[in-house]
C-alpha cells in the first residue's frame, strides 16, 4: 500500500461542549484509477484513535489494553471509494476520568501487515465549557 495511492484522514468536529460525545471517523480512500489490495489486521478490522493534550501527553487511546487478533483481513478498495471506521470518544481519559475543557489533537492509526501501519495527520479539537 503506497502512501501516494490513497488518502488516510481523521474527521472530528472543530469544537464540542464539555461532556458531549465526540464522533470520530477514520477515512481511507483509494485515490488511484485502479483497485488496491489492503492487508489490514484484526477481526473486526482494528483501528486506533489517540487523543493528546497540546503538550503531547496521551489522554485517551481507543485500543489501550485491548487485545487485537493478528488475523490478516484482505480487502479490495475500488478506485475512488473509501473505507470508514467510526467511534465515539466520551471525553474521558484512558483511566475513565472526565477531561477538562481545552485544546486537544486527535490522530488515527490503521494497523497493516507492514508496521507501523497507516497514521493520519493530527487534527485539532477544542472542548469548550458550557457557559
Q: How is this fold's topology laid out?
A:
Layout: E1 6-11, E2 15-17, E3 22-30, E4 36-41, E5 48-53, E6 58-61, E7 72-77, E8 82-89, E9 102-110, E10 118-119, E11 123-128
Parallel strand pairs: 2-11
Antiparallel strand pairs: 1-3, 3-8, 4-7, 5-6, 5-9, 9-10, 9-11
Features:
single chain; 131 residues; mainly beta; Immunoglobulin-like; six-stranded mixed sheet; three-stranded antiparallel sheet; 11 strands; globular
Rounded to the nearest angstrom, the radius of gyration is 16 Å
- Unreliable sequence segments: none
> How do the helices and strands follow one another from N- to C-terminus?
EEEEEEEEEEE
Question: Per CATH, which architecture?
Answer: Sandwich
CATH level-4 homologous superfamily:
Intracellular proteinase inhibitor BsuPI
Question: For this structure, what is the CATH class?
Answer: Mainly Beta
Total E-strand runs: 11
**Morphology:** globular
Q: What is the CATH fold-level name?
A: Immunoglobulin-like
Assembly type of the chains comes to: single chain
Helix proportion range: under 10%
Structural domain tally: 1
Strand proportion: over 45%
Mean of pLDDT: 90
Number of helices: 0
Termini separation (Å)?
A: 46 Å
What characterizes the major β-sheet?
A: 6 strands, mixed
Query: Which structural class best describes the helix and strand composition?
Result: mainly beta
Amino acid at each position: 500500500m503506497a502512501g501516494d495511492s490513497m488518502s488516510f484522514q481523521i474527521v472530528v468536529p472543530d469544537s464540542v461542549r464539555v461532556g458531549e460525545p465526540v464522533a470520530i471517523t477514520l477515512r481511507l480512500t483509494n485515490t488511484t484509477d485502479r483497485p488496491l489490495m489492503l492487508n489490514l489486521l484484526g477481526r473486526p478490522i482494528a483501528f486506533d484513535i489517540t487523543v493528546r493534550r497540546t503538550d503531547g501527553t496521551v489522554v485517551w487511546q481507543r485500543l489501550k489494553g485491548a487485545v487485537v487478533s493478528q488475523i490478516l483481513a484482505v480487502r479490495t478498495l475500488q478506485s475512488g471509494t473509501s473505507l470508514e471506521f467510526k467511534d465515539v470518544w466520551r471525553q474521558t481519559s484512558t483511566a475513565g476520568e472526565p477531561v477538562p475543557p481545552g485544546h486537544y489533537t486527535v490522530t488515527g492509526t490503521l494497523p497493516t501487515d507492514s508496521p507501523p501501519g497507516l497514521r493520519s495527520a493530527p487534527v485539532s479539537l477544542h472542548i469548550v465549557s458550557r457557559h
